[in-house]
Write a structure and sequence with these properties.
eight-stranded mixed β-sheet; alpha/beta
């Protein structure tokens, strides 16, 4: 048992600020009240206790290629199979990739992230590399694999089904690059297989305007329309929606991961976060390629908040942005975490309060040096 006492707790789905103690037993929150006590005591006077952050989209293998290719077109950098990053991954010894991924996982823990979703390149070998890299690191990972054969223009759907089934034995789902690399019938086979085995299917969609124009030219539908028709569970980006893309996504109830710092780095735009919220899209947040960005969710939230306010010239609540990195993600991924409440998993961060507004104190000012403790998987780190 652990008691965190004298904290300012961001409680519940709406992150209401309560002065309270938190009693934790095993990996669950047992009680949140002024009187909760028991077991080891952690004094959180002057601190905020918040839910651990969820990084909903990262390419952690890119950790080995930091800041390479800056200024090049997005296709030249990341488009499979011949992008700069793919050439680097193919040429780098596995042990160096493993150590760079370990560094990124440590960095995530040091900056308050307790769960991440990785779009895992490299097929079966790529999944094994991440398993090796994450050994003994107390961070929750959700691994979405892929296989190069999915991009073969001549691949048989029966072979897609067999490969997807085999892939899903060792990961949590399948994450695809985009409709520029796969056929719609391949995408449909993958989503059907994922659903059959209770796994996640995800795809990049509408990241920039050129892919949307190309999709319309070749298929008569936007990438978003194709993703919804083929049944993906989770869409990434939607930075360049067209027509009714956002409205239909909201009506279909499909969550979207926004990656604003990555979009900014690659000069493809600022995500329409306010319009997504207005269309009732469950909106998540991810740091995307470590090649471009540190996997620091505080930095991602700050950029998302300020860029969106600047784009729309309107106020955006910091609580709404903080929920993108916590409760929204947990809801989309069916995790029993994401906010602080009795019976929830105790994924928590304890952070020195720097300003009078607890949520803005986290988004605008928190650095790794301000995090005095992190609780995840029953461990106080």
């Amino acid at each position: 048992m652990i008691t965190i006492k004298n904290a300012r707790v961001l409680y519940g789905e709406n992150m209401e600020v309560h002065k309270a103690n938190i009693l934790i037993e095993d990996d669950k929150i047992v009680e949140v009240s002024e009187h909760a006590h028991g077991g080891r005591v952690v004094d959180a006077s002057g601190c905020i206790v918040a839910p651990g952050l969820i990084n909903s989209h990262i390419h952690i293998g890119d950790s080995v290629a930091k800041d390479v290719g800056d200024g090049q077109h997005i296709d030249k950098i990341v488009k499979p199979p011949d992008g700069i990053k793919h050439r680097i991954l193919n040429e780098t010894p596995p042990e160096k990739i493993i150590e760079s991924m370990r560094d990124s996982m440590r960095h995530m823990l040091e900056t308050g992230t307790t769960t991440f979703i990785d779009f895992r390149e490299g097929g079966f070998e790529g999944i094994e590399l991440l398993e090796e890299a994450s050994r003994d690191i107390p961070i929750r990972k959700i691994v979405l694999g892929r296989h190069d054969s999915f991009m073969d223009p001549e691949v048989e759907t029966s072979n897609v089904r067999k490969t997807a089934k085999k892939l899903l034995r060792s990961c949590d789902g399948i994450g695809l690059s985009g409709f520029g690399e796969i056929r719609d019938d391949v995408a449909l086979e993958i989503t059907k297989t994922c659903k059959k085995y209770g796994k996640i299917s995800s795809i990049h969609a509408a990241e920039y305007s050129a892919v949307q124009r190309q999709s319309l030219k070749t298929s008569g539908n936007t990438e978003v329309q194709r993703a919804l028709k083929t049944g993906f569970d989770l869409l990434v980006h939607l930075t360049s929606p067209l027509d009714d893309d956002l409205k239909v996504t909201g009506l279909e109830g499909v969550p979207v991961v926004s990656c604003p710092r990555s979009n900014g780095t690659l000069s493809v735009g600022i995500p329409p976060i306010k319009e997504m919220m207005d269309n009732n899209i469950n909106l998540l947040l991810g740091t995307d390629n470590v090649m471009f960005n540190s996997p620091n969710m505080f930095h991602e939230m700050e950029y998302a908040l300020k860029a969106t306010r600047g784009l729309y010239k309107e106020y955006l609540s910091p609580v709404d942005v903080f929920k993108m990195a916590t409760v929204n993600a947990a809801r989309a991924l069916n995790l029993n975490s994401g906010y602080i409440q009795e019976d929830k998993v105790a994924d928590l961060i304890i952070v020195k309060q720097i300003s009078e507004n607890p949520v803005l104190s986290l988004i605008n000012r928190a650095e790794s040096k301000n995090i005095i403790g992190l609780i995840t998987e029953s461990k106080l780190i």
